[in-house]
Automatic annotation (TrEMBL):
The keyword Oxidoreductase does not apply. InterPro entries: MoaB/Mog-like_dom_sf (IPR036425), MoaB/Mog_dom (IPR001453), MoeA-like (IPR038987), MoeA_C_domain_IV (IPR005111), MoeA_C_domain_IV_sf (IPR036688), MoeA_linker/N (IPR005110), MoeA_linker/N_sf (IPR036135). Residues 187-327 form the MoaB/Mog domain. The lineage of its organism: Bacteria, Bacillati, Bacillota, Bacilli, Bacillales. Its cofactor is Mg(2+). It comes from Scopulibacillus cellulosilyticus. It catalyses: adenylyl-molybdopterin + molybdate = Mo-molybdopterin + AMP + H(+). Catalyzes the insertion of molybdate into adenylated molybdopterin with the concomitant release of AMP. Pathway: Cofactor biosynthesis; molybdopterin biosynthesis. This is Molybdopterin molybdenumtransferase. It is an enzyme of class 2 (transferase). Its EC number is 2.10.1.1. Belongs to the MoeA family.
Amino acid sequence: MVERRKPISVQEAVSKVMNHVHLMPEEIVSIDDSDDGVLAEDIYADHDVPPFNRSPYDGFAIIAEDTSHASRENPVTLEVIEEIGAGDVAQNSVGHGQAIRIMTGAALPKGANAIVMLEIVHEKNDGKKIEIKRHIKKFDNISWQGEDTEKGALLLEKGHHVTPGVKAVLATFGYAKVKVYKQPVIGIIATGSELLNVSEPLVPGKIRNSNAHMIISQVKQAGGMPKYFGQLKDDLEQSFQGVKKVLSEVDALITTGGVSVGDFDYLPDIYQKLGAEVLFNKVGMRPGSVTTVAYLPDSGKILFGLSGNPSSCFVGFELFAGPYIKASQGLNNKFLDNVEATLTHDFPKPNPFNRFVRSRVTFENGYWHSQPVGLDKSNIVTSLIGANALMVLPGGTRGYQKGDKVKALLLNGEGSEQFCL
Ligand SMILES: Nc1nc2c(c(=O)[nH]1)N[C@H]1C(S)=C(S)[C@@H](COP(=O)(O)OP(=O)(O)OC[C@H]3O[C@@H](n4cnc5c(N)ncnc54)[C@H](O)[C@@H]3O)O[C@H]1N2
Ligand code: MOO
């Protein structure tokens, strides 16, 4: 008689995983090697931005009051005394009746209190004089020192993801090198005697291994460095030796398949032989109920036993392995974002467990809408094509109806600090 496993809640399973996160060490990398990394230091503004008052336009730096009576009929004429480009500092200060020709980004010359754009002046005498036919207000068109950020401001806290925008900020403050957390190396092993490599032709009884390739990209998306060790046949001793061998080369290991209660589901035996502590082996969710997570107390490494069924494997990764990888890399926003959405179709399946339905969410007329994609079965692979969210349908109901309000976990969102169902 096979042991009956006792499911724990998804929330409980997530906290068990989070209580076993092993934070990666810090490293210093060059700014262009920090893409998609996670900051291991706070970033403060060590100077004002812009660092000086400057011109946002190509034009002329003038004293605004000189134009107070200017009009179409009565233009004011100013003498151009100098020309400066971005990077230059004017030698002269602007006096009454004078102007300095200035290019975008150049420092505002002393004496000037407004910039007038090139397009609205009339140049005369080979550019030695300009005519202005309207009143220019004091402080018009000045990009002020510190208007972007002031010296001393905390701009980014450690644990922030390095995005292109973050890199612009790092460069602004002279971070040629930046402290980030090392990427965890995540080992991947697919188990199952039925598995063929992607390049092999189909033969009766066999299927191609899709999970490994899916997980490789999920690991990358989560910020980890995938290391794929290939496929293992359903043989206890070989699988045990295979798993044991790769453990020294990885920070965490993901296997797929072999976690259920079948005769050839050897992962539970392998965990036992390794002396691992099983954190859970059944979760109150569909798909992915057999997701198993074990922990090696000696090395602090975690073992994710994801289901072999493609959709279960996908969901198990997104709920548990993805947040673990992000947290081990120090990322604050480690969990999937969620939005409240309106269900676009009836979903009549009764729900004993929480269901995570592959869905497509869209934002229309100020509201999120969530549409299930494909068949909601754990062995289905094609429903993963269009899914950009996992719609959460809490268990214990007779199903859901079009128009019901549901939560949807965004697969491509920015992430959230809290796990929220
Ligand atoms: N008596 C019971 N049987 C099953 C239970 C149960 O509670 N009692 N749970 C079912 C559920 S739910 C799931 S999900 C599966 C999970 O099984 P495993 O995680 O042990 O996975 P396998 O048995 O190895 O494979 C399941 C399925 O997925 C295919 N597979 C496996 N690996 C891959 C891969 N890398 N790429 C693509 N497809 C893969 C495999 O051929 C099987 O069809 O167990 C139920 N049974
Ligand atoms: O674990 Mo299975 O994925 O519930 O369908």
